[in-house]
## 1
Amino acid sequence: MELIREGIKEAYNLLISLDPEVLQITWLSLKLSGIATLISLLIGLPIGTLLALGHFRSRRLWMSLANTGMALPPVVVGLAVSILLWRSGPLGGLGLIYSPGAIIIAQVIIATPITVALTVSALQQLDPKLQLQLKGLGASHWQLIWHLWLEAKLPLLAALMAAFGAVISEVGAVLMVGGNLRGHTRVLTTAIVLETGRGEFALALALGIILLLVAFLVNMTLTWIQQRAKKA
Amino acid sequence: MKPLLEARDIKVSRGARQVLSIDSLTVDKGEALVVIGPNGAGKSTLLLTLAQLIRPSIGSLYFNGHSQSWDKTLAYRRQIGLVLQDPLMLSTSVANNVSAGLRFRKVGRQEIERRVSHWLDRFGVLHLMHRPAHQLSGGEAQRVSLARAFALNPAILLLDEPFSALDTPSRTRLLADFQALLTETNQTTIFVTHDMDEAWLIGHQIAVLLNGEIRQKGAPDKVFAHPKDPDVAAFVGLESTILGKVVESNNGWARITVGGKSLEAVGDVNPGQDVFLYLRPEDVTLWAGNALPQSSARNQITGRITSLLPRGPLVHVVIDCGFIIGALITRASLRDMDLTQGQSITATFKASAVHLIPL
């Protein structure tokens, strides 16, 4: 109990004192996970739309792959990205290993199957006749897709929340490809792992509370947007 | 004059099964064509094919005499207005729903506002303009859906059973409003339904679709009174199907023996020919007891009532007079005549009420 009380007190102090290192770690976590989520949306939305609306033979195969990808073990992603970006690896020349860029790459790989699969399911939940009605009203290809996205905006926002939640709380891959370098690639999750290992439970707990708070604030914002869209 | 729309040799298959086979179907400008048929006949498939929303395995579509590509359908789709049975609304306001097609066509803002108000007003739902479309009742939504189609000022309006999901009072009111608008605007329309009343009210031309094929096309009185074959007859409600033999014929008049009795009918048939006789139950008059009918009807036969079946406000009386015929009477008449099962009764009908189809 003492440990928990200490943790909460420490977290409170860190937040109140605006500890520069904690702020930097928190901001980096938010920035990297936010960028990775947006990139995964830019990739996942078109692919998911193609899979949901297209008529081609390998469609089911790709959908199964996306669904499997949602359960992709992050350590395996970390291992694969590490091998690719390792100095002597195929993409070693880019010098990305142990950089924020490497973290974003790993997080995009983790988040994209989620945005693809949830986009497919969001669009397939719509009444199939809606497509007929929109085409019957004279919608062009892009007008049709845009209006289907608008109709599916609630589940699409849920997909965004799921993807963000998956990457901000991820630790294995981020640790492997980012290296947990202080001031450079240290994010909330890797800092928690480090402090726990050092026996600094109060500090680790404090960082954990900040992580929960950040995730909560981001999801609350998205939920607020979602529910406002529902009312409109 | 060239037809506004013409479909030629259209075949649509679902898997190995052919669901639609249309040799030719034309609609002239200003004409209201009603495609009528039972459930599963292929009516919706036909309508969606004519809207270029289903691609047939083969077939051509001509609009204003020009063949339409099945690969690039946008220009043609912007000539039509489509109303489906389920008035699918976008999850936005009523006004935005009505303006959707106009926005797709990049119509100017002021013109959009003018048309949206005008057509919502014409369908009596202007007051719902700012309401979220998902809060509308079925009848209101269908009115908005019709306004949305009319606002496009389409060359052809295509409607797939637009009134069949509505309750009877909403349906009756909307049907009357819609029919009045069609007449007033001279709107070219293709209207799909399984409902005979709607077909009578709306159609200048009726096409009967059975098992994916158009079996008969013509003016409503022609199709309903003179069906071309037994299947069409059965569908358009000529229920008493009686097999007889022509014994005498003269100038479109014929005497036919059926089950040992003699009937008169109107039709071009020859003596010795076997024919099917069709009779609408509403064309048969009943006389109970010893009252002698004072009627100009040429056919007068006696039989026994085998059953009395309620049909809403009416009663369907089935009579065995060596062959089976039906008659429709009101419940009041049933009480007045005190009809019961097994009772003897006289049925009369005009020679012109009997429709003949040679075997």
## 2
Amino acid sequence: MTKVSMTIDGVRYDDEVEPRMLLVHYLREVAGRTGTPIGCDTSNCGACTVLLNGLSAKSCSVLAVQADDAEITTIQGMANGEWHPLQQAFHEEHALQCGYCTPGMIMAAADLLRDNPDPTEQEVREGLEGNLCRCTGYQNIVRAVMRAASASQGASS
Amino acid sequence: MTVSAEIGKPRARKEDARLVTGQTNWTDNIQLPGLVHVAYLRSPMAHARITSVDVSAARGTSGVIAAFSGADFAAEQGSLPCAWPVTPDIVIPAHPPMATDEVRYVGEIVACVVARDRYAAADALELIDVEYEQLSAVLDMEAALTEGSPKVHEAGNKCYEWPFAQGDLEAAFRDAPVVIERTYRQQRLIPEAMEPRATVAAMVGDEFTLWTSTQVPHVLRFLLAAVLGIPEQNIRVIAPDVGGGFGSKLQVTAEEFLAVLIARKIGRPVKWTESRSEGNLAVHHGRDQLQRIKIAADRDGRLRGLDVDLLADMGAYLMLVTPGIPLFGAFMFNAIYKMDAYSFKCTGVFTTKTPTDAYRGAGRPEATYGIEHAMDDLAAELGMDPLELRKRNWITHEEFPFTTIAGLTYDSGNYEAATAKAVELFGYDDLRKEQAARRESGDPVQLGIGISTFTEMCGLAPSRVLGSLAYGAGGWEHAAIRMLPTGKVEVVTGTSPHGQGHETSWSQIVADRLGVPFDDIRVLHGDTQVSPKGMDTYGSRSLAVGGVALFAACEKVIAKARVIAAGLMEVSAEDLEWTPGQWSVRGDPEQSRTIGEIALATFTAHNLPDGVEPSLDSDATFDPVNFSFPHGTHLCAVDVDTETGQVAIRSYVAVDDVGTVVNPVIVEGQLHGGIAQGIAQALYEEAAYDADGNLLTTTLADYLIPSAADLPTFVLDRTQTPATSNPLGVKGVGEAGTIASTPAVVDAVIDALRPLGVTDVQMPCTAQRVWRAINEAKGDAR
């Protein structure tokens, strides 16, 4: 067992884990942050995407011990009193149906907008290529990300 | 007075609040005191006799609570049920949840481990020793039906043969000026709901609770009781948040049966969650048909006869509705077209592959692809625009209701209107001009146009029709309304949503009918203890059957409220008139009682008329009188790079008629996702097996679900011809996009390439396949 410490959605966690434990299993089963789901076992689907020190990471492809000392933000840490603009936009644009991919989509989109605050539709489509959705055909997800981008642009200008 | 008109409003969804914040309740999230984890060992062989299974090494390992082989369940596990014995002589092989003596596909369960955590369970699987004696795999349907083929089951590889014929086919083909004969293949697909399946089972006293990622909690409860002999009243099935299904969770699975049996054996709650690569082997697959289609027509394009001969791959066993899926085609190959004669035959074939069953569209995408693709081939044969060919044969709007050659009565529709709208949005004529110019100039990137003027049958289903087709259950749906004393409303539905947004749409129906605010309504579902009666969600049935049941329950509430309102106001019930939200005295609207006031009056019950029950609560069970028939025209334009074979969708227009629309945003979302799934079949996805029967596409790295970067923006519009078979006029929308889009895309690809001599490309139309088809047509393929 190996000691790990990390901050998850603003709360500090100290635990001992098997070195092989995946970060996503740590989040879900040790820290109890079940908002981050698992959709595959080959890092293709992106459902488990979180922010690791501010950058998007598929938490199935990171060991918990690799996240030692890291700051993790999951979907459950996105709302701050009120919903994050991406959460709001996903709701308003009907960008989710079953919602299983949604946490990963929103986290990946947050990183995309950090990197490129004013993306074109094509840039959104390419930026979210690592996150799969089976329900929406992506059309409303793309709309939602564009809407959140312009909301944030509006807020900052 | 409340003006409601909630039906038709683009409401944002109630469901989203938990889904966008990560407060979801997926089955895998569930924790219970003492919960332990199950892992299954699955057959690595397509076909083998099990000579021994030794779980003893696993049993002795730290953290392992138990390990079992099929022998441990032999006395109690029964056989997984098939609810649709389509012919009297159908072969329904025994299908034990855990194999005992023979395995028939890679992925069949042979043993399990129960351990304190999922890592320990997975580790201990490696300590189980299974010895197999390999038998011959059976992979090809045509070969499987030949004399001397190795057998999947003792009774042989033919599961059933189901014929249907109407009209004089021989006369239709005799002296027909044009006859085309084609063979198409529907590749095997994997549904790939984003949430992998998971099941938690707990037994307390003699009561079982099963949380499971299912579309069908009610069907599952009934079958657990019927097959395992557990008294039905002692079983509670809960479908918590369910992350997509697309038919894959319209199933009663080995893992669910075994979870119940293991929980009973070890006396602790158990959880099983599959990995994606496990799921690709074990979740039922979809499609997989060989279609032989013959059409006889006149020179002017008028259809004379259609002859369809299908081979349908059942896989290794019959699951819940496996044999019935291809038979939807019997009623759908004739589509929107008039003809003199029609013959349909389907032969179900066993192979040593994962069983097939319902996948979004279930039989209708296959039929729609077959007929729409054949219509394009016929148009090419006739040298006619494929749209013109369709116009010459479709049912015109004046002809509804129309009884088709397959015996269904299409209640409503307007193919001309939907097509005219689509043609305009698409710019059909301009695109045809551009296509001609690019053909003329020998552009290496050719433009292709594909057309799908589809219909489908959904709203499953009139119970009598299901009975006549030997299906094992009815097709009704149930809904109940509970009027709370504060005037708020609880709605209980037998539908079991897994992404469709029933909590929102059902609230809109009730808000519209009862005139209560949308936000005052809560919809309860997916728990047999809360919603004891239901037939669940599949076949685009929820709105067209469950929504209509809810509408009927609203009418009962309104009728009960009338009697009570009359008593409260001391007037005759005949003198009252209903406007959504209240009963008021005709001619004296000041004198009225709101539905909330009436609900409160039933709570106090101080002052009700004699003999009147103090309750507004009502329920209704609706059994549809007919299927519903959404239709539409989908047009797709593709650019095909003839040097690389690369296909790019340039534009996609869909004009759909789904009858009355309760929530246009949800309808659009269903169409977007449905179209994307049909495109996925056309261009990307295939479950591929090697020569030994190993599935090659076990992961999402090998089985290519399209990403955002692979799909275009769809242009949608609607026509609205209400269904006449139900009071809401709704038709259903869950599968329409998937049914429509595959032929539109594939036909566009072929349309681009016909001048090069290409007549068909096997789905999925990958760059390699397209390139190869071009080069084969040139005669220089290597």
